[in-house]
Design goal:
9 strands, three-stranded antiparallel beta sheet, Rossmann fold, globular, alpha/beta
């Protein structure tokens, strides 16, 4: 797909968060009204954390919401670097969502095993036929200054994975393993919402939101849903 993504520029990170909150609530209500369920993949990062905090008082039928994660670090669920821990402290522990509706990645186990187990969890939760991909109602994503998103980093083999739904990936720049959903999963989402703030993201944002996807397009810019919408909420500093 070579259509340019929709980029909305806000004056500040606070305005990005407020708009993201409204967008998430609207999508959740529409999905629950249509099919009695809302499937969302959460992201790590400071901007998403502020969005999660703002959702604590939202009037939503939490029992109809299923939470997944776009990626996870290879740490336990109470470790400071855990995406689950951040989301749990900011939001999940403060709303009446059933524990069975929160599908975390078990980063504390062997990376390959954890990725395989999460793929099995996705297949079970979405009742997938062999070869099918989950249809997330929303994947919330951020972007690093290098253009990575989730744990899809430039130059890693995870970017070329087309068969698995979830994979372990070695990120040499960080000397660490990560577990991430793959591009085909994000490409199949109904909605992708990128939240990007900060001047250090300006170059990667420009490349990622160009009309055409090329071999030089950063990982974030390669996510162009084949039957969905990708939107970028950015602040002025990131827009450059």
């Amino acid at each position: 797909m070579n259509s340019a993504p929709i980029v909305t520029v806000f004056a500040s990170p606070e305005e990005v968060c407020a708009a993201a909150r409204d967008r998430i609530i609207a999508l959740a209500k529409a999905s629950i009204s249509a099919r009695k369920r809302f499937d969302v993949a959460l992201s790590g990062g400071r901007t998403p954390e502020n969005v999660y905090k703002s959702l604590v008082g939202a009037d939503l039928p939490w029992s109809r919401i299923h939470v997944f994660f776009g990626d996870e670090r290879c740490v336990g669920p109470t470790e400071a670097d855990s995406n689950f821990r951040m989301a749990n402290q900011a939001l999940l522990s403060k709303v009446p969502i059933p524990a069975t509706n929160v599908h975390r990645i078990h980063g504390e186990t062997d990376p390959e095993r954890s990725a395989a187990e999460y793929e099995a969890e996705l297949r079970k939760s979405f009742a997938l036929r062999p070869g099918a991909r989950p249809r997330l109602d929303l994947a919330l994503l951020g972007m690093g200054a290098d253009g990575h998103t989730a744990s899809l980093f430039p130059g890693t083999t995870a970017l070329s994975e087309r068969d698995k739904l979830c994979c372990a990936t070695r990120v040499e720049s960080l000397k660490a393993w990560r577990i991430t959903l793959t591009l085909p999963v994000f490409q199949n989402a109904a909605n992708i919402l990128f939240l990007v703030c900060g001047a250090d993201k300006a170059q990667a944002l420009k490349q990622s939101t160009a009309t055409k996807v090329t071999n030089d397009t950063p990982p974030a810019g390669r996510i162009r849903p084949t039957n969905g919408e990708v939107a970028w909420y950015v602040d002025r500093a990131a827009r450059g």
